[in-house]
Amino acid sequence: MKKPELSVIILNYNTKELLEDCLNSVKDHMDEVDLEVIVSDNSSTDGSPDMVRKKFPWVKLIEGPNEGFSKGNNRAKPLVKGEMVLFLNPDTIVHDNVFAWTVRYLKEHSDVGAVTCKLVLPSGKMDKDIRRRFPTPWISFQHLVLGMNKAYWYEDIPEDATHTVDAIQGAFFLTWKKILDKVGWYDPAYFFDGEDVDLCYQIHKAGYKLVYYPDTYITHLKGVTKGKVAKWKFKVTPQQRKKLRLAGVASMERFFKKNLWNKYPIWFDYFVLLGINLFKVVRYIRVALLSSY
After folding, report:
1. Are residues 215 and 247 located together in one domain of the fold?
2. With 234 labelled, which of 35, 194, 259, 265 sits at a CA distance of 20 to 30 A?
């Protein structure tokens, strides 16, 4: 049996309706590239696995405990047959040429280790998180404290321009399997948030560029798994929302200790950790207050 060129990995947790729409959009464009689809399910309780088995028997389904984004995606590794891997969120809709053009771009640029397309929100605006600079202390301070986002989100470069970036988003993350095997796939120490930025950092360290390629696009509902979308808010309990919000701050600390610790004087490292932990306290208080309403 011929091996597929591309393996599409979709991590799902209680997003049955969105996953069905996503898979239908993938099915509509499967003729663009020889591909396979793998759904990794994090112990959904909404009937997602049964829906996949019934309506999409051609999809490879693997189930496991809900151990977060990194482990959930990595769970699909033994099933991957393609030379390329695309991490795709279930709250996305694929449009014309997305598979064909991004795969072609990656094949034609040997110095590029990963590529993403443009992500468009339901409002019609671009999802800014699709292109980011690494969260160095100065960039993070500007973004989180001063609200100066121009540098963090590459707002100094037009959104319709193809260009290299520090980091792309895990919602549409196309790379080579050989590169994933080289850098170790997603770091399992991340539960939620930050794992895509960390993977980008490892790909950069391996000597490759990452590219934002907006000539084609997908629709990204965004925020469903965090309980930020009103229509789907019931799928995420207040306790889960709290856990996810705090996991984001834990990811900041993990990224800094792992990747940036040796780049600064030791006194500055501890100063940054103090700032992260103060931010953690503030976020904890905010989450606690919101949960009380």
Report:
1. no
2. 194
pLDDT at 211 > cutoff 90: yes
SS (H, E, C) the chain: CCCCCEEEEEEECCCHHHHHHHHHHHHHCHHHCCEEEEEEEECCCCCHHHHHHHHCCCCEEEEECCCCHHHHHHCCHHHCCCCEEEEECCCEEECCCHHHHHHHHHHHCCCEEEEEEEEECCCCCECHHHCECCCCHHHHHHHHHCCCCCCCCCCCCCCCCCEEECECCCCEEEEEHHHHHHHCCCCCCCCCCCHHHHHHHHHHHCCCEEEEEEEEEEEECCCCCCCCCHHHHHHCCHHHHHHHHHHHHHHHHHHHHHHHHHHCCHHHHHHHHHHHHHHHHHHHHHHHHHHCC
The rounded distance, in Å, linking the Cα atoms of 35 and 28 is 12
276 and 212 inside one domain: no
Same domain for 26 and 153: yes
pLDDT in tens, 150-206: 999 999 999 999 999 999 999 999 999 999 999 999 999 998 889 999 999 999 999
Q: What tokens appear for 43 in the block?
A: 């112990």
pTM to 2 decimals?
A: 0.91
